[in-house]
Amino acid sequence: MTDNVINFKAAKKRAGYAKKEIKAAENRKKFGRRKSDKRLDDFEKTQQSEHIDAHKLDDKT
Question: Is the pTM of this model over 0.85?
Answer without folding.
Answer: no
